[in-house]
């Protein structure tokens, strides 16, 4: 089983419905035994907001599912957990049983399950602003949250991190800093994915570099990590995610489709068969 | 820059100076005496310092990547086109400072003088300050905890020698976090005109805008209005429009109607914008007749009316 963990960037905000921190919550969610059935763990990072990290996580999960794998997604994006909506799982209740939290299965075949902080927040429209240190032990601070998640997952030997950027220099700038974070925490980088890489006009098929070009490949080369591929912009993908549809199943003709499959393939190649 | 011990209960807490983690902290005695509970003197100092700044505008967004820094940079450029308008741009996105790159000021250094820190001047009438100027390498990751970020923002507001300024534009990180709370807290005595909230048309972005608006109400920050970015894309070849980020729930227009907040304008997705930002140039000068530039100018007018 693959588990994808999209992680908001180290510079992001926190928004919580209770006064607990992310660290202990992630530890709860990854308590001993719960991840025993998971063979491969992938963290999806960006360093820059809005580059499509949740989108790529969801699409990677769908692509792996189509390759016959069982996938779990852990959405610890406290600021705006968008994954429940992408898989049409908003408002689902999360139950606790003796073994821990029961993730939500998003499909009939139970091949994709999701645990999101979104399920645990109270009012979706309320801004819960939290600043601390507050009454608990762990000081807040986005780096601590980020580190806490990485530390909580470390005993399970994550396969590595997938880093998402857009082609523009400002994104690349932030993502370079994220790569530094990976290096400092000893997290292996599986590679860089360049998202929103060009738009093919549906009327005349001309491809335009809407958000500049070349940044992803340059970044990968500069950092000495593999470049996993470029995913072009496709409004059908955006719409499909807003409506919680299975993009991979519905749009095999989309220009984004081959790119996403190729990235999933590369991830699969990196994953050695593990003895459970 | 003061370091705080791990487990610091916070200077305003009842445990300030009394907790186990307070042992050995240089501020322990101060906190234990209750001084931490008093309002931060910096708030009055900042009010005095910013008396020479006529208008203060915060640029917010709910979601990242919607074009907030791009907007802040071009709001500054647009206003500074009038030589007689003094403009200041403050980038408090401490973990992801994009402003130096967008303004073509990467690698610039900040100088200190008797009257405080000098901003980096792009033009005689356009000064910029960002944590980006304090980093030695573009690869440096700023992984700071809350209290340190708070301290940085206090310094930016209190110790920068802005001089006589007509418009101070504050570019923030996405969402609602330590940086926003610090900025609002330290500006609480200095009159802030309000916040401009940037969004893209999709529901995923609007969801976060609603939370952002809720934040503004909570901290009593007036809202100047909302800007919808990346509205439509016009193909440079066939000139036909496409919606790259479809407004499945009506976009910012419906949100603003529902919440009775002004929609300051909509900006189309223009590939020139990204290119200009990458080169650190003003898109308003690079492509002055483009629909996006015209939209920006309209929005600048509505914002500062």
TrEMBL record, chain A:
One of its GO terms (cellular component) is cytosol. Keywords: 4Fe-4S, ATP-binding, Iron, Iron-sulfur, Metal-binding, Nucleotide-binding. InterPro entries: Mrp/NBP35_ATP-bd, P-loop_NTPase, YlxH/NBP35. This is Cytosolic Fe-S cluster assembly factor NUBP2 isoform X3. GO terms for biological process: iron-sulfur cluster assembly. One of its GO terms (molecular function) is 4 iron, 4 sulfur cluster binding. It holds the Pfam family ParA.
TrEMBL record, chain B:
Binds 4 [4Fe-4S] clusters per heterotetramer. Contains two stable clusters in the N-termini of NUBP1 and two labile, bridging clusters between subunits of the NUBP1-NUBP2 heterotetramer. InterPro entries: Mrp-like_CS (IPR000808), Mrp/NBP35_ATP-bd (IPR019591), NUBP1/Nbp35 (IPR028601), P-loop_NTPase (IPR027417), YlxH/NBP35 (IPR033756). Its cofactor is [4Fe-4S] cluster. Keywords: 4Fe-4S, ATP-binding, Cytoplasm, Iron, Iron-sulfur, Metal-binding, Nucleotide-binding. Belongs to the Mrp/NBP35 ATP-binding proteins family. NUBP1/NBP35 subfamily. This is Cytosolic Fe-S cluster assembly factor NUBP1. [4Fe-4S] cluster 1 binds at residues 8, 22, 25, 31. One of its GO terms (biological process) is iron-sulfur cluster assembly. It comes from Panthera pardus (Leopard). GO terms for molecular function: 4 iron, 4 sulfur cluster binding; ATP binding; ATP-dependent FeS chaperone activity; metal ion binding. It comes from the Eukaryota. Gene3D superfamilies: P-loop containing nucleotide triphosphate hydrolases. It is found in: Cytoplasm; Nucleus.
């Amino acid at each position: 089983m693959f588990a994808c963990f999209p992680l908001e960037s180290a510079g992001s905000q926190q928004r919580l419905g209770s006064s607990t921190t992310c660290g202990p919550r992630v530890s709860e969610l990854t308590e001993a035994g719960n991840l025993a059935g998971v063979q491969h763990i992938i963290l999806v990072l960006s360093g820059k907001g809005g580059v499509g990290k949740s989108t790529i996580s969801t699409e990677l999960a769908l692509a792996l599912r189509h390759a016959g794998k069982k996938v779990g997604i852990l959405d610890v994006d406290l600021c705006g957990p968008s994954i429940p909506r992408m898989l049409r799982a908003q408002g689902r209740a999360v139950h606790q049983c003796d073994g821990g939290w029961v993730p939500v299965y998003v499909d009939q075949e139970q091949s994709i399950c999701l645990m999101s902080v979104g399920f645990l927040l109270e009012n979706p429209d309320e801004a819960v602003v939290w600043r601390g240190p507050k009454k608990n032990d762990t000081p807040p601070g986005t780096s601590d949250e980020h580190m806490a998640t990485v530390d909580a997952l470390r005993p399970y030997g994550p396969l590595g991190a997938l880093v998402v950027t857009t082609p523009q220099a400002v994104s690349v700038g932030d993502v370079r800093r994220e790569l530094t974070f990976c290096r400092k925490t000893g997290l292996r980088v599986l590679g860089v994915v360049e998202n929103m890489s060009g738009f093919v006009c549906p009327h005349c098929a001309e491809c335009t570099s809407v958000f500049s070009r070349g940044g992803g490949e340059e970044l990968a080369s500069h950092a000495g990590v593999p470049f996993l591929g470029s995913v072009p912009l496709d409004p059908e993908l955006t719409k499909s995610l807003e409506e919680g549809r299975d993009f991979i199943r519905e749009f095999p003709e989309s220009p984004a489709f081959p790119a996403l499959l190729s990235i999933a393939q590369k991830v699969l190649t990196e994953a050695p068969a593990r003895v459970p | 820059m003061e370091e705080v011990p791990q487990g610091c209960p916070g200077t305003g807490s009842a445990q300030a100076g009394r907790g186990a983690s307070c042992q050995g902290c240089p501020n322990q005695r101060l906190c234990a005496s209750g001084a931490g509970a008093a309002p931060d003197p910096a708030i009055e100092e900042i009010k005095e310092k910013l008396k020479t700044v006529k208008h203060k505008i915060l640029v917010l967004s709910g979601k990242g990547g919607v074009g907030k820094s791009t907007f802040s940079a071009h709001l500054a450029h647009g206003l500074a086109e009038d030589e007689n308008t003094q403009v200041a741009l403050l980038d408090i996105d401490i973990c992801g400072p994009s402003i130096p790159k967008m303004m073509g000021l990467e690698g610039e250094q900040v100088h200190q003088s008797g009257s405080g820190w000098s901003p980096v001047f792009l033009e005689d009438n356009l000064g910029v300050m960002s944590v980006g100027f304090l980093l030695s390498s573009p690869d440096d990751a700023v992984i700071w905890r809350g209290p340190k970020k708070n301290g940085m923002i206090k310094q930016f507001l209190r110790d920068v020698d802005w001089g006589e300024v007509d418009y101070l534009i504050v570019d923030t990180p996405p969402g609602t976090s330590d940086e926003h709370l610090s900025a609002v807290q330290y500006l609480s005595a200095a009159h802030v005109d309000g916040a401009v909230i940037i969004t893209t048309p999709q529901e995923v972005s609007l969801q976060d805008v609603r939370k952002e608006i809720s934040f503004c109400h909570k901290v009593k920050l007036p809202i100047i209005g909302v800007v919808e970015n990346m509205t439509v894309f016009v193909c440079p070849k066939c000139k036909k429009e496409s919606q790259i980020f479809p407004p499945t729930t009506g976009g910012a227009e419906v949100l603003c109607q529902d919440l009775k907040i002004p929609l300051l304008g909509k900006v189309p997705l223009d590939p020139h914008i990204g290119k200009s930002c990458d080169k650190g140039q003003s898109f308003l000068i690079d492509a002055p007749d483009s629909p996006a530039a015209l939209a920006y100018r309209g929005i600048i007018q509505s914002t500062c009316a």
